[in-house]
Amino acid sequence: MCQAGEARRPLPLMFVWLSACLAAVCFLSLLFGAGEIGPGASLSSLLGMREGAAQHAEEAAFVIHELRLPRTMLGLVVGMALGVAGALLQAVARNPLAEPGLLGVSAGSAFAVAIALMLGASAATLRVSVAQLGALGGCLCVLAAARMRGVGNDPVRLVLAGAVLSGLLGALTSMILLVDQRTADEIRFWIVGSLAGRHLEDLQAILPSLALAGVITLLIGRPLAALALGERVAVGLGHHPRLVRLLAIGVVALLVGATTAVAGPIAFVGLVVPFAARALAGPDIRRTLWLCLPLGPLVVIGADIVSRLVVQPSELPLGVLTALIGAPVLILVVRSQRLPTL
């Protein structure tokens, strides 16, 4: 009864409300930072007011337009991508605990990047496709684990299997960093997950992949909703379950690989965002995906703002903060008396 009531909530109204909240958070992201440019100077610069010394005004304009604006825009894209990827992965695995960071997808992407750097690539010339291939390998491992007897039907066991895979890939990545100092120098800040120091060129590099992923997601939304009713029902409606799953896995690889390439592995966003979206929209995957679009950036940019302020004048890595947010959500889902059916 509760789920039915949730499903009747008007989706456009929730989407508009969340989008308004996201716009407010984006505005705050332009105002607040860890440096000397505070909210007052930032607001004056945004409004075109030239109060104080000219040098200070120019510095405020530089911080906003060259540092905070690209960071905010990247947070928008990363949040959307990770939220949608988490929802798709949970739908394919039929498991509310399936999340790219927990099940080794992000770790596979990071491992592929580490290998590429060890073989001579640099962070500046690294191709997004490398991270996407690593993410695809992690996705295939997740799909294989979900079909193992006694694992796929048990959410906790699936997470444990994913934790083993993540640990193994993380250990291999650490070994590469230990034996190759240049790779360690290139990857040290990136691997903890952060939006700091990124540029609009980084965003432009991943837009083609994200556009392709968006088109495929629109095409498989209805088949995924039918697949949630069972394979026989999906086949009876004219869909091909295996093809739908493969396409969904491909989309997850595109999304997670692209975001990992530009922002590093950011854990738990793909768990928190779909969990909140289902709580608002009900179990229909199509409604969940729509709400993930504003909810994902809301979580990522909100966490990024907090990461700038908690340890001033330094910054806390975004990946650390999302882990602090996501861990209690994971515990909440695991300790629920009845896990939601996807």
TrEMBL record:
Belongs to the binding-protein-dependent transport system permease family. FecCD subfamily. It is found in: Cell membrane. GO terms for molecular function: transmembrane transporter activity. GO terms for cellular component: plasma membrane. PANTHER family: FE(3+) DICITRATE TRANSPORT SYSTEM PERMEASE PROTEIN FECC-RELATED, FERRIC ENTEROBACTIN TRANSPORT SYSTEM PERMEASE PROTEIN. The chain crosses the membrane at residues 14-34, 72-89, 101-121, 158-179, 205-226, 246-277, 289-310, 316-334. CDD domains: TM_ABC_iron-siderophores_like. This is Iron complex transport system permease protein. Its main location: membrane. GO terms for biological process: siderophore-iron import into cell. The keyword Cell membrane applies. Keywords: Cell membrane, Membrane, Transmembrane, Transmembrane helix, Transport. Gene3D superfamilies: ABC transporter involved in vitamin B12 uptake, BtuC. The keyword Lipid metabolism does not apply. It is a multi-pass membrane protein.
